[in-house]
Design goal:
With 154 residues, this protein is of the alpha+beta class. The protein has one domain: 2-Layer Sandwich (Alpha-Beta Plaits), CATH 3.30.70. The protein is 38% helix and 27% strand. The protein has a five-stranded mixed β-sheet, sandwiched between helices. The chain starts with 10 loop residues before the first strand and ends with a helix. The protein binds flavin mononucleotide (FMN). The site of flavin mononucleotide (FMN) has 17 residues, from helix 1, strand 2, strand 3 and helix 2.
Length: 154
């Protein structure tokens, strides 16, 4: 990791996928709302931006910002019991932010949106367990595109 980190202040991006793991007494929608609120609040303070995709029992998240902030935040997220089996898909320096408009933009897709996600994932079924680094970034950028258009018409 130290090799990939070119400086604590330069831009880094980390993408991971994890499985949602809500305890029986948790209401998933409420927990997701709460974690998004905390993310926006904390990420604003640490100059992080990113996107969180919530679908089919999965989280796929991009975090970008200063390397130290990205790694510190990811460590905290890793310890969060609301998900499990986190797999880092990519991590390293980035030329420019891809999700710079949002301290955290969250997008939920319902089961009815499966076809949209399959299309976004370039005709492969939505399966974060096997997403490559390129495919993951492509997917999150496609979701970003939807979000931009939705924001314009909202
Ligand atoms: C999938 C997932 C994504 C999260 N993303 C972020 C994030 O981007 N930034 C953040 O500060 N916390 C994030 N959290 C929440 C942290 O795990 C933790 O609950 C929170 O940072 C604690 O903040 P607080 O001490 O201000 O309540 C995420 C949690 C989960 C399960």
């Amino acid at each position: 990791m130290s090799q990939a980190i070119s400086g604590s202040r330069s831009l880094h991006r980390l993408i991971y996928a994890s499985r949602q793991a809500f305890a029986p007494d948790m209401v998933a929608d409420d927990e997701i709302d709460a974690l998004i609120r905390a993310s926006i609040r904390n990420n604003r303070l640490t100059s992080l931006t990113g996107l969180l995709l919530v679908h089919d029992g999965w989280f796929v998240q991009a975090l970008e910002g200063p390397a130290t902030a990205v790694m510190t935040t990811y460590q905290r997220i890793l310890n969060d019991p609301r998900h499990t089996d986190s797999r880092v898909i990519s991590a390293g320096p980035a030329d420019a932010p891809e999700f710079g408009d949002w301290n955290m933009c969250a997008r939920r897709f319902s089961p009815a949106d499966d076809a949209i996600l399959d299309t976004l994932a370039q005709k492969q079924a939505f399966d974060p367990a096997t997403l490559s680094d390129k495919a993951a970034l492509r997917l999150l950028k496609a979701v970003r595109g939807i979000q931009d258009r939705t924001a314009l018409t909202a």
